Automatic annotation (TrEMBL):
InterPro entries: AKR_Detox_Biosynth, NAD(P)_OxRdtase_dom_sf, NADP_OxRdtase_dom. Residues 20-42 are annotated as: Disordered. This is Aldo/keto reductase. Residues 70-358 form the NADP-dependent oxidoreductase domain. It comes from Leifsonia virtsii.
Length: 359
Protein backbone atom coordinates (compact mmCIF):
# COMPACT_ATOMS: atom_id res chain seq x y z
CA UNK A 1 0.00 0.00 0.00
CA UNK A 2 1.25 3.55 -0.68
CA UNK A 3 2.74 5.18 2.37
CA UNK A 4 2.15 8.79 3.41
CA UNK A 5 5.30 10.80 3.84
CA UNK A 6 5.41 11.41 7.60
CA UNK A 7 4.43 14.97 8.53
CA UNK A 8 7.40 15.13 10.89
CA UNK A 9 9.72 14.59 7.92
CA UNK A 10 7.92 17.20 5.81
CA UNK A 11 8.25 19.72 8.63
CA UNK A 12 11.91 18.91 9.18
CA UNK A 13 12.97 19.42 5.56
CA UNK A 14 10.53 22.22 4.77
CA UNK A 15 8.41 20.28 2.28
CA UNK A 16 4.64 20.65 2.23
CA UNK A 17 2.10 18.45 0.57
CA UNK A 18 0.30 19.75 -2.47
CA UNK A 19 -3.03 21.52 -1.93
CA UNK A 20 -4.55 19.23 -4.55
CA UNK A 21 -5.12 15.65 -3.37
CA UNK A 22 -3.25 12.97 -5.26
CA UNK A 23 -5.45 10.90 -7.54
CA UNK A 24 -4.20 7.28 -7.68
CA UNK A 25 -5.53 6.97 -11.23
CA UNK A 26 -3.39 9.92 -12.30
CA UNK A 27 -0.35 8.32 -10.69
CA UNK A 28 -1.06 5.10 -12.53
CA UNK A 29 -1.42 6.90 -15.86
CA UNK A 30 1.78 8.83 -15.27
CA UNK A 31 3.64 5.67 -14.36
CA UNK A 32 2.64 3.99 -17.61
CA UNK A 33 3.40 6.92 -19.89
CA UNK A 34 5.99 6.42 -22.59
CA UNK A 35 9.21 8.42 -22.18
CA UNK A 36 9.92 11.11 -24.75
CA UNK A 37 12.48 10.48 -27.43
CA UNK A 38 16.04 10.82 -26.18
CA UNK A 39 15.20 10.51 -22.46
CA UNK A 40 14.92 6.77 -22.15
CA UNK A 41 16.37 6.52 -18.64
CA UNK A 42 14.20 9.07 -16.83
CA UNK A 43 11.13 7.91 -14.95
CA UNK A 44 8.09 9.00 -17.02
CA UNK A 45 6.23 10.04 -13.86
CA UNK A 46 8.34 13.20 -13.61
CA UNK A 47 6.04 16.12 -14.37
CA UNK A 48 6.30 18.91 -11.84
CA UNK A 49 8.45 20.43 -9.14
CA UNK A 50 5.89 19.91 -6.39
CA UNK A 51 6.85 17.51 -3.57
CA UNK A 52 5.22 14.12 -3.58
CA UNK A 53 2.48 13.80 -0.97
CA UNK A 54 2.55 10.02 -1.20
CA UNK A 55 5.71 7.94 -0.97
CA UNK A 56 4.94 4.57 -2.52
CA UNK A 57 7.10 1.62 -1.50
CA UNK A 58 9.14 0.23 -4.37
CA UNK A 59 9.24 -3.46 -5.16
CA UNK A 60 12.66 -5.12 -5.33
CA UNK A 61 12.83 -6.82 -8.71
CA UNK A 62 10.72 -9.97 -9.01
CA UNK A 63 10.47 -10.42 -5.24
CA UNK A 64 7.59 -9.64 -2.91
CA UNK A 65 9.76 -7.22 -0.94
CA UNK A 66 8.51 -3.63 -1.07
CA UNK A 67 10.59 -0.95 0.64
CA UNK A 68 10.81 2.76 1.29
CA UNK A 69 13.01 4.10 -1.54
CA UNK A 70 16.08 4.73 0.59
CA UNK A 71 18.32 2.01 1.97
CA UNK A 72 20.23 2.97 5.11
CA UNK A 73 23.84 1.94 4.63
CA UNK A 74 25.31 0.45 7.80
CA UNK A 75 28.98 0.32 6.83
CA UNK A 76 29.72 3.13 9.32
CA UNK A 77 28.14 1.37 12.30
CA UNK A 78 30.83 0.57 14.83
CA UNK A 79 33.33 2.57 12.77
CA UNK A 80 32.74 6.31 12.26
CA UNK A 81 29.52 5.94 14.26
CA UNK A 82 29.95 4.32 17.67
CA UNK A 83 27.41 1.93 19.16
CA UNK A 84 25.08 4.46 20.78
CA UNK A 85 25.20 6.75 17.76
CA UNK A 86 24.43 3.84 15.44
CA UNK A 87 21.34 2.93 17.45
CA UNK A 88 20.22 6.57 17.41
CA UNK A 89 20.66 6.70 13.62
CA UNK A 90 18.52 3.59 13.26
CA UNK A 91 15.88 5.10 15.55
CA UNK A 92 15.74 8.25 13.44
CA UNK A 93 15.55 6.22 10.22
CA UNK A 94 12.63 4.12 11.49
CA UNK A 95 10.90 7.18 12.97
CA UNK A 96 10.85 8.81 9.53
CA UNK A 97 9.41 5.72 7.86
CA UNK A 98 12.56 3.85 6.83
CA UNK A 99 12.45 0.06 6.67
CA UNK A 100 15.36 -1.09 4.45
CA UNK A 101 18.80 -1.63 6.01
CA UNK A 102 21.94 -2.54 4.05
CA UNK A 103 24.92 -4.20 5.74
CA UNK A 104 27.54 -6.91 5.17
CA UNK A 105 29.27 -9.57 7.23
CA UNK A 106 32.60 -7.84 6.54
CA UNK A 107 31.61 -4.37 7.78
CA UNK A 108 33.80 -3.72 10.82
CA UNK A 109 34.34 -7.48 11.08
CA UNK A 110 30.63 -8.11 11.70
CA UNK A 111 30.15 -5.32 14.24
CA UNK A 112 27.64 -3.60 11.95
CA UNK A 113 25.41 -6.69 11.95
CA UNK A 114 25.71 -7.00 15.73
CA UNK A 115 24.47 -3.45 16.25
CA UNK A 116 21.56 -3.92 13.85
CA UNK A 117 20.60 -7.16 15.55
CA UNK A 118 20.76 -5.53 18.97
CA UNK A 119 18.59 -2.64 17.78
CA UNK A 120 15.92 -4.90 16.23
CA UNK A 121 15.76 -7.06 19.36
CA UNK A 122 15.48 -4.04 21.67
CA UNK A 123 12.88 -2.29 19.51
CA UNK A 124 11.07 -5.55 18.66
CA UNK A 125 10.68 -4.45 15.06
CA UNK A 126 12.29 -7.24 13.04
CA UNK A 127 9.06 -7.93 11.18
CA UNK A 128 8.87 -4.31 10.03
CA UNK A 129 12.42 -4.24 8.66
CA UNK A 130 13.85 -5.54 5.38
CA UNK A 131 17.44 -6.55 6.06
CA UNK A 132 20.00 -6.99 3.30
CA UNK A 133 23.45 -8.33 4.05
CA UNK A 134 26.36 -9.57 1.97
CA UNK A 135 28.72 -12.53 2.16
CA UNK A 136 32.01 -13.29 0.49
CA UNK A 137 34.46 -10.79 2.01
CA UNK A 138 34.64 -11.81 5.66
CA UNK A 139 38.14 -13.04 6.42
CA UNK A 140 36.81 -16.12 8.20
CA UNK A 141 34.49 -17.11 5.33
CA UNK A 142 35.96 -15.69 2.12
CA UNK A 143 34.64 -16.32 -1.36
CA UNK A 144 31.50 -18.00 -2.63
CA UNK A 145 32.30 -21.64 -2.09
CA UNK A 146 29.47 -23.69 -0.60
CA UNK A 147 31.06 -24.08 2.84
CA UNK A 148 31.96 -20.38 3.05
CA UNK A 149 28.47 -19.25 2.06
CA UNK A 150 26.71 -21.50 4.58
CA UNK A 151 29.06 -20.59 7.42
CA UNK A 152 28.84 -16.90 6.57
CA UNK A 153 25.04 -16.93 6.52
CA UNK A 154 24.84 -18.81 9.83
CA UNK A 155 27.22 -16.29 11.40
CA UNK A 156 25.23 -13.36 10.03
CA UNK A 157 21.97 -14.80 11.35
CA UNK A 158 23.52 -15.08 14.79
CA UNK A 159 24.87 -11.54 14.75
CA UNK A 160 21.59 -10.14 13.43
CA UNK A 161 19.63 -12.16 16.02
CA UNK A 162 17.14 -13.33 13.40
CA UNK A 163 16.14 -16.56 11.70
CA UNK A 164 16.19 -15.21 8.14
CA UNK A 165 17.88 -12.72 5.84
CA UNK A 166 15.49 -10.90 3.52
CA UNK A 167 18.00 -10.15 0.77
CA UNK A 168 21.36 -11.93 0.57
CA UNK A 169 24.01 -10.44 -1.70
CA UNK A 170 27.02 -12.21 -3.10
CA UNK A 171 29.38 -9.37 -2.20
CA UNK A 172 31.69 -9.90 -5.18
CA UNK A 173 32.02 -12.36 -8.00
CA UNK A 174 34.24 -15.34 -7.16
CA UNK A 175 35.99 -16.57 -10.33
CA UNK A 176 37.48 -19.50 -8.41
CA UNK A 177 34.05 -21.01 -7.72
CA UNK A 178 31.60 -22.14 -10.43
CA UNK A 179 28.61 -19.84 -10.28
CA UNK A 180 26.34 -22.87 -10.52
CA UNK A 181 27.73 -24.17 -7.21
CA UNK A 182 27.18 -20.83 -5.46
CA UNK A 183 23.61 -20.62 -6.74
CA UNK A 184 22.92 -24.20 -5.69
CA UNK A 185 24.05 -23.36 -2.16
CA UNK A 186 21.82 -20.30 -2.15
CA UNK A 187 18.95 -22.51 -3.31
CA UNK A 188 19.38 -24.71 -0.23
CA UNK A 189 19.46 -21.65 2.03
CA UNK A 190 16.26 -20.33 0.45
CA UNK A 191 14.50 -23.69 0.73
CA UNK A 192 15.53 -23.93 4.39
CA UNK A 193 14.04 -20.50 5.09
CA UNK A 194 17.30 -18.87 6.12
CA UNK A 195 17.33 -16.57 3.08
CA UNK A 196 14.34 -15.12 1.24
CA UNK A 197 15.90 -13.67 -1.93
CA UNK A 198 19.27 -13.52 -3.64
CA UNK A 199 21.14 -10.54 -5.12
CA UNK A 200 24.54 -9.70 -6.60
CA UNK A 201 27.00 -6.94 -5.78
CA UNK A 202 29.73 -5.86 -8.19
CA UNK A 203 28.91 -8.52 -10.78
CA UNK A 204 29.67 -7.90 -14.44
CA UNK A 205 26.92 -7.90 -17.05
CA UNK A 206 28.26 -11.15 -18.50
CA UNK A 207 28.04 -12.90 -15.14
CA UNK A 208 24.51 -11.61 -14.60
CA UNK A 209 23.53 -13.07 -17.95
CA UNK A 210 25.19 -16.37 -17.04
CA UNK A 211 23.31 -16.42 -13.73
CA UNK A 212 19.98 -15.88 -15.49
CA UNK A 213 20.73 -18.73 -17.91
CA UNK A 214 21.55 -21.02 -14.96
CA UNK A 215 18.29 -20.05 -13.28
CA UNK A 216 16.40 -21.59 -16.20
CA UNK A 217 17.39 -24.98 -14.77
CA UNK A 218 15.66 -24.19 -11.49
CA UNK A 219 18.43 -22.39 -9.61
CA UNK A 220 17.45 -19.16 -7.83
CA UNK A 221 17.43 -15.88 -9.73
CA UNK A 222 19.10 -12.70 -8.65
CA UNK A 223 16.31 -10.21 -7.95
CA UNK A 224 18.59 -7.21 -7.42
CA UNK A 225 22.07 -5.86 -7.99
CA UNK A 226 24.27 -3.37 -6.23
CA UNK A 227 26.76 -1.27 -8.16
CA UNK A 228 28.58 1.99 -7.58
CA UNK A 229 26.49 4.71 -9.19
CA UNK A 230 26.13 8.42 -8.53
CA UNK A 231 26.41 11.77 -10.29
CA UNK A 232 30.22 11.59 -10.16
CA UNK A 233 30.52 7.92 -11.14
CA UNK A 234 28.20 7.07 -14.03
CA UNK A 235 29.93 5.38 -16.96
CA UNK A 236 30.52 1.98 -15.36
CA UNK A 237 26.86 1.33 -14.53
CA UNK A 238 25.27 3.17 -17.45
CA UNK A 239 26.81 0.80 -19.97
CA UNK A 240 26.04 -2.93 -19.99
CA UNK A 241 24.91 -3.38 -16.34
CA UNK A 242 22.00 -0.96 -16.74
CA UNK A 243 20.85 -2.70 -19.91
CA UNK A 244 21.00 -6.14 -18.26
CA UNK A 245 19.24 -4.87 -15.14
CA UNK A 246 16.38 -3.49 -17.21
CA UNK A 247 16.14 -6.62 -19.36
CA UNK A 248 16.09 -8.96 -16.37
CA UNK A 249 13.82 -6.83 -14.20
CA UNK A 250 16.49 -6.45 -11.52
CA UNK A 251 16.11 -3.90 -8.77
CA UNK A 252 19.17 -1.65 -8.55
CA UNK A 253 20.52 -0.39 -5.22
CA UNK A 254 23.38 2.02 -6.00
CA UNK A 255 26.09 2.23 -3.37
CA UNK A 256 28.30 5.27 -2.76
CA UNK A 257 25.14 7.11 -3.80
CA UNK A 258 26.57 10.35 -2.41
CA UNK A 259 30.11 9.78 -3.75
CA UNK A 260 31.62 9.25 -0.30
CA UNK A 261 29.98 12.41 0.99
CA UNK A 262 31.12 14.69 -1.83
CA UNK A 263 27.56 15.24 -3.10
CA UNK A 264 26.48 16.52 0.31
CA UNK A 265 28.61 19.60 -0.39
CA UNK A 266 30.85 18.84 2.56
CA UNK A 267 34.02 18.76 0.48
CA UNK A 268 34.27 21.81 -1.77
CA UNK A 269 37.96 22.67 -1.56
CA UNK A 270 41.14 20.86 -0.69
CA UNK A 271 41.08 22.51 2.74
CA UNK A 272 37.83 20.68 3.53
CA UNK A 273 39.53 17.30 3.21
CA UNK A 274 40.74 15.33 6.22
CA UNK A 275 42.75 12.15 6.72
CA UNK A 276 39.61 10.00 7.03
CA UNK A 277 38.94 7.19 4.55
CA UNK A 278 35.82 8.83 3.16
CA UNK A 279 37.55 12.17 2.74
CA UNK A 280 40.42 10.53 0.88
CA UNK A 281 38.01 8.86 -1.56
CA UNK A 282 36.00 12.06 -1.97
CA UNK A 283 39.17 13.98 -2.81
CA UNK A 284 39.07 12.49 -6.31
CA UNK A 285 36.03 14.68 -7.03
CA UNK A 286 37.39 17.98 -5.72
CA UNK A 287 38.13 19.38 -9.16
CA UNK A 288 36.50 21.56 -11.82
CA UNK A 289 33.97 18.93 -12.85
CA UNK A 290 33.03 18.36 -9.23
CA UNK A 291 32.55 22.08 -8.66
CA UNK A 292 30.26 22.31 -11.69
CA UNK A 293 28.15 19.41 -10.39
CA UNK A 294 27.89 20.99 -6.94
CA UNK A 295 26.88 24.33 -8.46
CA UNK A 296 23.92 22.71 -10.26
CA UNK A 297 23.03 20.68 -7.17
CA UNK A 298 23.07 23.84 -5.05
CA UNK A 299 20.79 25.65 -7.49
CA UNK A 300 18.24 22.85 -7.72
CA UNK A 301 18.38 22.25 -3.96
CA UNK A 302 17.59 25.94 -3.40
CA UNK A 303 14.64 25.69 -5.80
CA UNK A 304 13.21 22.83 -3.74
CA UNK A 305 14.27 24.14 -0.34
CA UNK A 306 16.24 20.98 0.51
CA UNK A 307 19.85 19.89 0.97
CA UNK A 308 22.11 19.04 -2.02
CA UNK A 309 22.31 15.43 -0.80
CA UNK A 310 18.54 15.11 -1.16
CA UNK A 311 18.70 16.23 -4.79
CA UNK A 312 21.59 13.89 -5.59
CA UNK A 313 19.55 10.95 -4.30
CA UNK A 314 16.39 12.19 -6.03
CA UNK A 315 18.31 12.15 -9.33
CA UNK A 316 19.05 8.47 -8.79
CA UNK A 317 15.47 7.70 -7.80
CA UNK A 318 14.23 9.23 -11.05
CA UNK A 319 16.19 6.66 -13.05
CA UNK A 320 14.10 3.76 -14.30
CA UNK A 321 15.84 0.77 -12.71
CA UNK A 322 16.66 2.29 -9.31
CA UNK A 323 14.76 0.97 -6.29
CA UNK A 324 16.59 2.44 -3.30
CA UNK A 325 19.98 4.17 -3.22
CA UNK A 326 22.22 3.08 -0.37
CA UNK A 327 23.34 6.03 1.75
CA UNK A 328 24.77 6.20 5.23
CA UNK A 329 24.80 8.73 8.04
CA UNK A 330 27.31 9.28 10.82
CA UNK A 331 24.86 11.29 12.93
CA UNK A 332 21.08 11.00 13.44
CA UNK A 333 20.40 14.50 12.07
CA UNK A 334 21.96 13.52 8.72
CA UNK A 335 19.22 10.94 8.14
CA UNK A 336 16.60 13.62 7.43
CA UNK A 337 18.18 14.74 4.15
CA UNK A 338 18.50 11.14 2.99
CA UNK A 339 14.87 10.32 3.68
CA UNK A 340 13.64 13.57 2.12
CA UNK A 341 14.93 12.51 -1.30
CA UNK A 342 11.96 10.21 -1.90
CA UNK A 343 9.58 13.17 -1.62
CA UNK A 344 11.35 15.35 -4.18
CA UNK A 345 9.98 15.55 -7.69
CA UNK A 346 12.57 16.84 -10.11
CA UNK A 347 11.50 18.32 -13.44
CA UNK A 348 12.78 16.94 -16.72
CA UNK A 349 14.75 20.14 -17.14
CA UNK A 350 16.44 19.66 -13.78
CA UNK A 351 17.19 16.02 -14.60
CA UNK A 352 18.75 17.00 -17.91
CA UNK A 353 20.81 19.74 -16.26
CA UNK A 354 22.21 17.18 -13.80
CA UNK A 355 22.79 14.65 -16.57
CA UNK A 356 24.70 17.15 -18.71
CA UNK A 357 26.88 18.63 -15.97
CA UNK A 358 27.87 15.20 -14.67
CA UNK A 359 28.76 13.67 -18.05
Amino acid sequence: MPQLLPLRLLETVGLRTSDRPVNPRELARAGSAEPPTGIVDIDPAIESTGPLSIIAPRRIGESDLAVYPLSLGASVFGWTADGDTSLAILDRFAHLGGDFIDTADSYVGGRSEVLIGTWMRQRRNRDRMVVATKVGRHQENPGLGSVSIVRAVEASLERLQTDHIDLLYFHDDDPETPLEDSLATAEWLIESGKVRYLAASNFSADRLIEARILSSSGLPKFVAIQNQYNLMHRTEFESAPRIVAAAQGLGVMPYYALANGFLTGKYRTKSDLTAGARSVRASAYVNRRGQRVLAVLDRIAAEHGVAPASVALAWLLAKRTIVAPVASASRPDQVDALMAAAGIRLTRSQMLDLDRVSE
